[in-house]
Amino acid sequence: MNPNQEENRFKELFHDLKREDARLAPSFTRDWDAASSRVGKVSSFGPVARVIAALVVLLALGGLMRGSFRSSPKPTILTGTPVALSSISQWQSPTDFLLKFPGDSLLKTIPQLGESSLEINGNISDLESATFSL
After folding, report:
1. pTM for the whole thing?
2. Using one digit for the tens of pLDDT, what is the confidence trace for 84-125?
3. Dist. CA 101–CA 127, nearest whole Å
4. What is the number of other CB atoms lying within 10 angstroms of the CB of residue 127?
5. Of 9, 11, 83, 132, which is least packed with CB atoms within 10 Å of its CB?
6. Among 8, 11, 31, 30, which Cα is nearest to 19's?
C-alpha cells in the first residue's frame, strides 16, 4: 500500500466514526428546549428548606465568631522545676556543629608576607590529622 491509499483509508474510517457519533448523540435542539423550559420554573426548594439553610449558615457563623472571641488559656507554671531563661543572643543552633569542619581556621586567616612555610604546613598537617566527629 502506498502512503496516499493509507491516508485515504484513515480519512474514510474517521468519517465513519464521526457519522456514528452524530447518529448516537442527542440532538442539540432537544437539549436546548429542555433547558429553556426549566428556566421559568420555581426551584424545588420550598420556603421551609430555605429557612433551614439560612439557620445552618447562621449557626456556623455564630460558632466561628464564638471561637474567635474566646480568651486564650492562661499559661500554667510547673512548680518544682527550675526554668532557665536565656537571652536570644546566647541561643545556639543544635546543628551548628555541621557548619564547622577541621581546618576551618585556615580559611579565616590571611597569610602574611614573611610567614614561614613551616607554619602553613603545620596548619595543613593539623587538618590532615583531624577527623569529623558526630
Report:
1. 0.25
2. 566 777 888 889 888 888 878 777 777 778 776 566 555 555
3. 9
4. 14
5. 83
6. 11
